[in-house]
Amino acid sequence: MTLRPALKTLAVLTVAVSLTGCGAMLAQNPGSALKPVNAVPAEPESRLLLKGADVVAYFTQGQYVQGKPEFRSQHEGVDFRFASAEHKALFDKNPAQYLPQFGGYCANGIVYGIPWGGDADAWKMIDGKL
């Protein structure tokens, strides 16, 4: 009989510990449908994704390109910069097509529920997704 309460306590602790990593992901960017996202404050944007990397350039040029403040858009409360007006127009037409997987964070951390890493210059295209 004393084993049952101990097993119940162990089960509750196991669930609590396994959900702890989720708290870090949810805390990263509250108030947006896109979370977590690798976003930082940068004037004039408050949540600039990947420090302003042009997410469209990965698809159109196959390389990392820094976006410019004069070409910017906002999607789901997250700010994006682009290298050109053409890239901005492509993004505005279909933002979901260009969003990086895992919010721009390193896939290794996301596996463990911890958003970390995500260098804009270290990336890979897999099955048409960034």
What portion of residues is helical? 25-40%
Treating each run of at least 4 consecutive H or I residues as one helix, how many helices?
A: 5
Helix-strand pattern: HEEHEEHHH
Summing up helix and strand content along with how strands pair, one would put the structural category as alpha+beta
Shape: globular
Proportion in β-strands: 15-25%
What is the total tally of β strands? 4
Biggest β-sheet: strands ordered side by side in the sheet: 1-2
What's the N-to-C terminus distance?
A: 54 Å
Radius of gyration computed on alpha carbons? 19 Å
Name the poorly predicted regions.
15-28
The major pleated sheet works out as: 2 strands, antiparallel
Average per-residue pLDDT, rounded, comes to: 81
Structure description:
With 130 residues, this protein is an alpha+beta fold. It has a domain of 89 residues. Strands 1-2 form a two-stranded antiparallel ribbon. The longest helix is centred in the N-terminal third of the chain and has 26 residues.
Short description:
The protein has 130 residues and is α+β, with helices and mostly antiparallel strands. The chain has five helices and four strands.
Task: Draw up the topology in text.
Elements: H1 3-28, E1 39-42, E2 45-49, H2 55-60, E3 68-75, E4 78-82, H3 85-93, H4 95-98, H5 107-111
Antiparallel strand pairs: 1-2, 3-4
Feature tags:
alpha+beta; 130 residues
